[in-house]
TrEMBL record:
Keyword Oxidoreductase among UniProt keywords: yes
The keyword Oxidoreductase is assigned to this record: yes
Pfam families: AhpC-TSA (PF00578)
EC annotation from Swiss-Prot or TrEMBL: 1.4.1.13
Xref: InterPro entries: AhpC/TSA, Thioredoxin-like_sf, Thioredoxin_domain
Residues covered by the Thioredoxin domain: 7-166
The organism of origin for this protein: Vibrio maritimus
Enzyme category, top tier: oxidoreductase
Protein name: Glutamate synthase [NADPH] large chain
GO molecular function: antioxidant activity; glutamate synthase (NADPH) activity
N-terminal signal peptide: none
Alphabetized Gene3D superfamilies for the sequence: Glutaredoxin
Length: 179
């Protein structure tokens, strides 16, 4: 039986970089735009029509996330050329990063799949993952899936994050007990 490392809720989020189309690198989990938390959405890549739909839907929740103090970033293992081609199907204003390596995918603990054929894509790719990093750089919310059909519903997620961030609720990081 093989074992893989899964990130533990409450622990420091690893320092990982990916590339933006302007040639700069971005550190996953470091919020921008004056916000204090960041939701990092790992998606499969250009070949996945469900990813395209989800990213376009995420755009409609961008303000709800910002109102909750949560910046958003999406990243895949696609190449720059694949991301540029994918932009033809996307209508998003949040940052999209590319070049997530298989080693980085393993550090995140996401499921990794082999392409079914060269028509699908030319590299192993991450299955969907969501990592919400708080102002201390710790993993506050984590959700990973082994297929593209299971992802957090964005309305419930944005409302839940707003509730978690409300200081009146004093809601701790959940799922921290070892077993």
């Amino acid at each position: 039986m093989s074992t893989s490392v899964k990130l533990k809720a409450g622990n420091a989020f690893p320092s990982l970089q990916a590339m933006l189309l302007d040639g700069s690198s971005v550190t996953l989990g470091e919020p921008k735009n004056g916000l204090t938390w960041q939701a990092v959405f790992v998606y499969r890549g250009k070949h996945c029509p469900l990813c395209t739909k989800y990213l376009n839907e995420l755009e409609s929740y961008k303000q709800a996330f910002a109102d909750a103090g949560v910046d958003i970033l999406a990243v895949s293992g696609d190449s720059k050329a694949q991301l540029e081609k994918h932009l033809e199907q996307l209508d998003v204003s949040f940052p999209l990063a590319y070049g997530l390596t298989e080693g980085q995918m393993k550090q995140l603990g996401v499921y990794i799949s082999l392409p079914r054929s060269e028509k699908e894509t030319d590299h192993n790719f991450a299955e969907p993952g969501l990592f919400v990093v708080n102002e201390h750089g710790n993993l506050h919310v984590v959700d990973i899936s082994n297929n593209p059909f299971v992802r957090p519903e964005l309305g419930a997620l944005s409302r839940g994050l707003a509730w978690i961030r409300d200081p009146n609720n004093n809601y701790p990081i959940r799922g921290t007990l070892d077993y």
